[in-house]
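Tutorial, part two.
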Amino acid sequence: MRYKLFGRSGLRVSELCLGAMTFGRDDGFWQFGSDSAESRKIFDAFTNAGGNFIDTAFVYGNGRSEELVGDFVRADRDHFVLATKYSSSLEGDLSKSGTSRKNMMRCVEQSLRRLKVDCIDLYWLHVWDDTTPIEEIMRGLDDLVSAGKVNYIAISDTPAWQISRGNMLADLRGWAPFIGIQVEYSLLERTAERDLLPMAHALDLGITAWSPLAGGMLTGKFLDGKGEGRGQHQPMTDRQRTVTALVVEIARELGCTPGQAALAFIRQQDRFGTITPIIGARTLPQLQDNLGCLAVTLSPDQWQRLEQATAPDLGFPHAILQAPMIRDMVLGGQSDRFDNHRAP
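Running the prediction step on this input gives:
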């Protein structure tokens, strides 16, 4: 496992992040999780491979995930980069959900107790609620950093314009800025390339990708059409089948598993800076298979085949701005001679 700086910070994280959403099981919503013994095996396999970046959330396992992660890191707490999130809730109470300062303060105190730590390394806003003013969010998160309860802040599942607005406000007022974003990103879901990933590149934000295997579809295990009852609730679309079949074909060429080939594509996608896949697993063999992506490298031809087969429709205004006629008009007829790459 190699390491890198995360976004506009000195935070050093492993090139893969362990997602702990599957840690813990209850009798309600979170029945799909792993028990504590299997969760421990998954955690140990990840750390033995050199991983130090652990991602959980207030809501995962109805709180059990944070408790287990806290137990697992206790022997060497400072070795790990602990990330957790707030805003989502399973309690069905309006006052106990959302991104307000009130809920933020409630959640961070509970997360600290569950994790059994004095400080959270990376604190994520989990899901944008479209109601709380960005000023309230940024000031509240800055207060957590100033109080020493949080080292860095980041944001997940939020429109690009709100994230950039928040960081501009933080920069102007001297508050702690977001240092990273978390987005859904896989060969079956690349629409983050419209605005979120270019924004992250321009603002020097770390990028983590959740569901990099598209809920397991990219492993090829649902191609037989028998997905229902095995975690796949909806039938695969024609496009999903076509892309997954291509991943399986390229995996055969490489002598690796389809999941490893799909993760390799994300790891080699450097147009927007380094993207860190969040690998999650319910069983130890699943985690071990994911770790195998570290030894897989797609050839330029293989990468290009996947790139072309999964390229997203960027829509307006991106499509028109890339049109040769428009580029010639705005670049004085010299679009073929002009390099518009700008480093962050």
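The first strand starts at residue 3 and ends at 5. In part three we will examine how such features are distributed along the chain.
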